[in-house]
User: Fold these one by one.
Assistant:
Number 1:
Amino acid sequence: CLSMKNKTSFVPGKLLGYMAAAKPVLAFLNKESDGFHLIEEAQCGYATTSDNVGVAARLARTMYGEKDVLAAMGARGLQYAKEHLSRDVVVQKIEALLQK
């Protein structure tokens, strides 16, 4: 859960940790967070702004009702992390940028 006072665009470190551990994600973020895009692209859970209590409660109930798909969400997060966020992949991307 991130404070709405935070106005920087970033991905919380614990989000990456949850993905690497193959855990489904329910994130309450500031609206500037890149975590929204990451969770959506990886299809590893749900996110809303931390000041939207109604949506947060609805998403928590949704996940509770989807117990049978939580493992698949977590697995998608892990697969995404391996394909896009692993050290080797990131180093290759940086090297490609430096060669331009």
Number 2:
Amino acid sequence: MTVSIPTPTADTSSTGIRRHRRIDTPIGELTVVAHDTAVVAIDWHDHATDDQGVPAEPGELDVLDTAVEQLREYFAGDRIDFDLPLDPVGTEFQRQAWNALCAIPFGET
């Protein structure tokens, strides 16, 4: 998977209003949370917030459309690489862990 977690250059917790969309998948319902330019969280739980608890309202964003489309393609077996702008909210340790996970090649553990 070719996804990397960006290093924040500013306080991203205030970047636009959060919107969310729910999608049914083979692993259960996922909630995708984004601001106007990037995905900030994807969660299995039924809450529409980022990792810091910033709430998201249901709504439309181009980045949500793209994320949902790419997730559907992935679960259909038609995609192994994601091309999404990411801006997850987390500690430095969480970002390091996410980057380490992203370095694991597709289909390997």
Number 3:
Amino acid sequence: MAFDVIFREATLFDGTGAPGVVGDLAVEGDRIAEVGAAPGSAAEVVDARGQAIAPGFIDVHTHDDFAALVYPDMAFKTLGGVTTCVVGNCGMGAAPQPAAKAMAGAMHPGVSWPEWDGYRGYLALLEATPPAANIAVLVGHGTARLAAMGTEARAPSPAEMAAIKATLAEGLEAGAVGLSSGLIYEPGKHAAAEELIELASLMAGTGALYATHMRDEGLGLLQSVDEAIRIGEAAGVPVQISHHKASGQEAWGLVERSLEKIEAAQQRGLEVHADQYPYTAGSTVLAAVVEGGRLAGAGGGIGALTPDKVVVASTARHRDWEGKSLEALAREFGADLEATIGRVLAEEPGTTVILHTMSEADVRRVMAHPSTMIGSDGLPTLQGKPHPRLYGTFARVLGRYARDEAVLDLADAVFKMTGMPAAKFGLAGRGRLERGAFADLCLFDPKTIVDRGTFEDPKQTPAGIAMVLVNGKAVVRDSAATAERPGRPLRRAGSQ
């Protein structure tokens, strides 16, 4: 039989957590045709001896809603083995469009966007102008709330709640995989748990999930986990805790108890999991850090911060500020912290920053836990110095944490970035090496794969990834991006 591609004698990690086994894998069209043995010929035969093949990595926590349009080659993801991105996290979604564009301004300043109507229109645009990677969407609660009632610090009126529900319903009908919230950001921070329960209840029985950037990842971490679990149990929907961590030194160690809370909820029958990026620093917009006095010791849900731990990642015009801490900028400006922040936000309101707030021991504890999958949470501000997680998340887990430091084994690491998220997010036909599955594949060298980016020089693609296929087409070949754009919008099973 003739195939399009045969990989010969690779170590196959099937995405279930099972150990790798040596065998062949054949691709025909957009599907895996054979696994284990592939008798026959092919237009392309790849000698994969000494290499590993895994399902393409599923990045469950991204902010690539608009990057998929601005940078359709998605090379910052595909060169790292990612074949599917879940967008719309932290309450920031792609619709309604006017509110979505306002939220996207920080990451993509000055971009002129095409028009689309709702999530159905956004997904149709991705079909018409496909990116290199697949895209699955979450409905952003914050975006829907902003469109319905601005930044009002109160409960929505019945009419406003109806408008928010209409956005969610339209997204679910279009194929969204769930609802996300961002409870430290405007305007999501004004939403009570009851509002979120009422909304999430619309998803009961659909397979869609509730993903949350919780209200407090610092000293209030445990109460925030309780709230997320309560929302899921009351609404009858699965829960995904975003970027599970304890932020701020005073909160280090709390993840041991937050993991216990997840375990207890699972034992009660709730499908609750978390995702994680494998770094001790996070990243967000500076305006969100300043809100609530987070640099004045209040924490505001992200732990106490000092100006030396807040580093400018990207700005629209002040390249010379990038890579400098607020403390360093204050010295450069000859001003106090308040005046420094005021100047930065006045001149660059969309400034993104990197926050050095986490413990390595906590990162390892969360990573090793069976409730955790992998998500980069990268901000695609390619013009500046974005957090290196944008490029290196998956290779860092496989190389540093699995191979070099044995925090988890390689098969389990692959499972956390393939089969596990595919099952949780309802991505049918993805995340597994099996006959008939979509040919989303990553060919890598398990001996050399590793991230290379640093905070000083973040835009470095990983080592050790040779070839990446999306829907049977090579988007990476010989460790370089190709011109192929075979990505598809992935819709939830049962949606229109």
Number 4:
Amino acid sequence: MAKRSTGNTQYKRPWNINIGFIIFAVILLYLVISIFSYMTTEKLVGYEVKSGSLSTNSVYKGLALRREEIVLSDYSGYVNYYNEEGDRIGKGNLAYTVDESGTVMDYVESMTAGEAMFSDEALSELRLDILSFTNLFDPKNFQSVYEFKNSIRSTTQRLSSNSILANIREMDESGLSASIHYGYAPATGDIVFSVDGYENRTFADIVTDDFDQSLYQKTRLENGRLIAAGDAVFKLCTDENWQIVFPVDSLETAQMLRDEEYIRVRFLKNQYESWGKVDTRSDVNGQYFVCLSFTNSMVTFCGDRYIDIELLMSDEVGLKVPNSAIVDSEFFLVPKEYLTQSGSERGVLRRSYAENGTMTTTFIPAPPYSETKEDYYLDQTSLRIGDVLVRPDSAETYTLGRMDTLTGVYNINKGYADFRQISILYGNEEYSIVVPNTMYGLSEYDYIVLDAEKALPDQFVYH
């Protein structure tokens, strides 16, 4: 008996492709990849270039170097001086006396017993000095107190010594001066009553420890003290030419000052200004020193070893760029005659060969990044060492090989890192001031990569 058909036949359902679902999946995958790339790619942080100048440290404590001659005593006894510190004394002039037995002081005391040692004229001079200091005293400048103290000491020394000298002459007449010896200046110079061991130092001898004032020892040669034969009795500064040496924090600062050749200096002690010729050197430890040479005003500071100075630099204004944005990059040097134009683009003609050996010439966009009198600087984005360039309208060729380095930053105005050459005027540890509006350089309000080490040429910027 034949099986009856129920009339319900099952058919296999065909597989329909949902185009909308595929498009959605592709978009979703693209978004996932983009987000992942954004999250994992190190961002290039931009910096807006603006005009400015640098506030650099221009005040230094310098070490004074002079031509100094220490004079030694030929006698033992009590010394008396007849000049103030800083006085100019001629060769052969009386500078001091040495009293072997103390006869002079005994005689002076006996002659002035119950009387004032200074005359009315001398006391009037001291009163004027004190009144002048009182009227001009500034509590904010307490250093002036020490300067006044030394000035008064020097003045009283001169006045008392003049009184003693007058008494010595009286003793000569009475025959009581047999134990007194006279000392004369061996050369012409400015007299100083102190020694410190720096008298024979030169710029080449200076080391970092010389600026540690806690190690500095200065011996004052006091009036009336007991000395032995061969002791230092005074010092002469015999040349108006002198130097101030000070340390600086970096090679860049040393080079910046050396490039100036001459610098105007303000001495903070008296606000006097002078021009100094610049020289620099470094020691084996990498410490840089600057030396300023002067031809005047030495006598004003002949008793000072450490002098505070301010460098009066002309503040050139330019574009202020972080040092982290500055990079050195290598470029090909290509003769100018090999550059050509194709539409709005500049570039070069590169020779190449097809698979069948046919020689062809291809235009390669290559805008210049700088130039010399004979060459353009072209980057390495599309060119390689060994490429053969063809001179337009000629059979001459040039093989890429010569290279040079440019200093610059990465400009990101167009959304990608584009090298721009810069010319640095001066700088400090954080920023540099560069020349604005140069042909291949920067302009104010340009955006550059803040950290050049994280950027690559033509790298796109993620915002």
